[in-house]
Amino acid sequence: EEKGLKEKDVRVMPSRAHEACFVEYKDKGLKTVVVRGIVRAHVDMQVREIVEDIVKPLLEEIDDGSVDMSHVCLKVLGGGEGLNAKALAHDVEVAVAQCLVPSLLLHRVGCVGVTLEIGDTVCIDVATPSGFGVAQVSVVDELPSPFPSLETVDVRRRAAARKAGGFLISDAVELLQLASDGCDLTDVEELVLSEEASLVPVSSPQAHKEAVGMRIYSLKLNGCSVLIVGNDLTHRVASMGVKECKTFVAACERAERMQTPLLFLNASSGARLGVDEAMKKMLTFAEDGKLVAGGMEVSSVSNPHADYGVPSLSGCGATARAYSRLYDKGFCVTICIGRAVGIGAYLARLGRRTIQVAQTPIILTGQAALNKVLGKDVYESNAQLGGPQIMHQNGVTHLTASNCLEAMRQAKEWMEWKTRVEAKEPARPVPPEGDGALSPAQLVDVLFDAGSFVEVQRAWAKSVVCGRARLNGRAVGVIATQTATTELVVPADPGDFSTSERRIQHPGCLWLPDSAAKTAEALEDMGREQLPMIILANWRGFSGGLRDLFEGVLQAGSGIVEGLRKYPAPVFVYIPRGAELRGGAWVVLDKQINEHGNIQILMDRSARGGILEPEGTAEIRFKKAAIHEWMERDGADEKEYPKYRAGALRFCDAHDRAEALLAQQVIDGVVDLADARGFLTKKLNDLLLQ
Q1: Strands (DSSP E) along 350-421, which ranges?
Q2: What is the C-alpha to C-alpha distance for residues 509 and 89, in angstroms, rounded to an integer?
Q3: Of the residues 133, 289, 584, 676, which has the maximum number of CB atoms within 10 A of its CB?
Q4: What pLDDT shows up at residue 124?
Q5: Are 443 and 480 in contact (CB under 8 A)?
Q6: Cα–Cα distance, 505 to 507 (Å, whole number)
Q7: Pairing status of strand 185-193 against strand 199-201
């Protein structure tokens, strides 16, 4: 009655919980579920257990993500005069929030209000995705209009953001706080671009919220400055107008100037489309059929204050330049929290270190527009076009996350990679001698701190493994050869009926066009972070077939040379137990490549290095005639040919052994796998202290 709802719009549902019921209704398009229950107070009441019994069934209602807000109304009976209403309200609110935190953080529900009646006292509060656990309790003397506190948390905007697949940008700081697991987050302030084109603290948050969608927050995380920039999903459908572009550029320039990590929460529907709305309202036709507005013929429309159309496109060009430069000169991490269309997709690529939340598409053109061009409904969704199943497999996305909180945790860890962590672990156990070389996972377990390795671009170019790890607490880059056969799945394009899904088997220990490109990109990324690099090398060379050359294996291999030529930090190329480095693969990793002398090559005693494998060398340099000449010299019989053939292979192999290469000064040391962790730790410390 208070909300003026009709009976058909309200649904009352019994609950399995004792003395509780659910009420579901829609008010102005917002779906709300209310839980009403009774709590009988006593001295040693277990608040959490009682609240869980009442609230947990609510999860079944909101699990599909269709609920915009929920409210828990509890009436406390009994307890006597000694009952501390405020303390009880605090306990109830915390219990409610803890029950519903997964749904809050996964944005299945926009916010949860709590109303608690204790005698003549009513306590009202609200928990949002950003406000879980804050537990600020307001005590009022009488029950006001239903759920007033929900009006203060932008319920409608929060619902709109959720429907767009993301969250309110104003929740970003609190979400980072939650992801930081108790880390200090201080000096938070929102910045705005002033008329003088400088960033200053916001003086009127509401006016700023309505004027521009791009928001900037400055803060300190564990004492280190961080900038957060992102588009408001609810402001003009997160399009990039001129003001949004200028604000983004200013954030990038500040991050570069102050060498502050920038966290970009990417949600953009592309350049802003628009027309002159004031002129549109005056449009009419003259007698001669000409288009006129305000008594003047309309032949071209030029609005100096337009924040749409080509001025918006030009602004998007400026954002691309600024973010590309920041990747080159500073440090940035991108989280795709909502659809990234057009310029949003380009920014995801330009910033490189991209985390894609599940079901958030990175696309150039929307599915509806493509279907219109094709004249039929070919594509089902934007996620089909540019979801993680596409963008993680092609290398645009470095990491994926199931929800925004997980993505925030990944971004925080990425920003902290340069921080030294104390870790003095004993030598790691080495797998026993066996057939063939060790896998990347086995080598990582032996060489690096336990659980520290984070692989990036896992789904792309699987024949090479790239990531970051810690060596005795120090962050390092890692590139390792995949020894096993991998499979590339090329999806069929629904828009091209001539295509079908293809599955291609890729052998291990070989650089292919995609894995060589991935290696070059890893060198570029980690070189900009100035991370020491450890390359666990086991390549027989580059693939050189017609298709490989057509697909750019030569260009990608040249990219590896470029990356290593200018790599600014120490590089250790380690050829581990049972591995080999041959031909062009040795060339692009050779220690003379780096112009600063930063590369050192180390080999396990059982490893090999050379142009060809012994069989290939013998076919050219120790042919059958040469073997027979040797046999004649020794007076051997023809039946001993296999023995001499094996001897020829051993002779060729002797040229490729670690001891021989060390004597020729083409490598810098012979280090067995069991000693490699300690050796690398000491060597790296010595180099960085120079």
Answers
A1: 354-357, 362-363, 399-401
A2: 63
A3: 676
A4: 58
A5: yes
A6: 7
A7: antiparallel
The full length of the chain comes to 690
Angle separating helix axes 624-634 and 641-654, nearest 10 degrees = 110
Q: Are the C-beta atoms of residues 239 and 270 closer than 8 Å to each other? A: yes
Give percent of the chain with pLDDT exceeding 70: 82
Which neighbouring-strand residues pair with 626? none
Partners of 475 in the β-ladder? 470
Chain-centre distance of CA 481, in angstroms? Answer: 23
Coil, helix or strand at residue 174: helix
Evaluate whether 25 touches 9 at the Cβ level (below 8 Å): yes
Of the candidates 267, 564, 529, the one whose C-alpha atom is nearest the C-alpha of residue 407 is 267
Instruction: Give the CA distances from residue 489 to residues 389, 398, 459, 588, in Å, rounded to whole numbers and listed in that order.
Output: 10, 18, 10, 28
Helix (H) or strand (E) holding 499, with range, is none
Lookup result for tokens 């080509």: 310
Average pLDDT over residues 581-586: 96
Written as six digits, the tokens of 323 are 């973010």
Say what the pTM is.
Answer: 0.84
Three-state secondary structure of 271-312? ECCCCCHHHHCCEEECCCCCEEECCEECCCCCCCCCCCHHHH
Distance CA 669, CA 373 (A): 61
Bridge partner list, 122: 117, 140
The residue among 403, 414, 430 whose CA lies nearest residue 477 is 414
Among 179-188, 213-222, 308-317, the range scoring the smallest mean pLDDT is 179-188
Strand partners, 112: 70, 127
Rg over CA atoms, the chain: 32
Q: What is the DSSP string of 205-216?
A: HHHHHHH-SEEE
Higher pLDDT, 287 or 142: 287
What number of H helices and E strands is found in the chain? Answer: 23, 30
Distance between CA atoms of residues 474 and 586, nearest Å: 27
What DSSP element (H or E) covers 490?
strand 486-490
| Nearest partner of 508 among 543, 535, 456, 532, judged by Cα | 543
Tell me the angle at which helices 47-62 and 85-105 cross, rounded to the nearest 10 degrees: 30
Which range of 11-20, 76-85, 262-271 scores highest in mean pLDDT? It is 262-271
At 351, which amino acid appears?
G
- The closest of 489, 495, 480 to 536, measured between CA atoms, is 480
Instruction: Of 588, 608, 574, give the one whose Cα is nearest residue 443.
Output: 574
Q: How confident is the model at residue 141 (pLDDT cuts 50, 70, 90)?
A: very low
Please, what is the end-to-end C-alpha distance for the chain in angstroms? 77
Q: Which residues is 22 bridged to in the sheet?
A: 13, 35
Residue 481 one-letter amino acid: T
β-bridge partners, 603:
575, 670
CA distances from 609 to 33, 333, 357, 601, 659 (A): 68, 38, 42, 11, 11
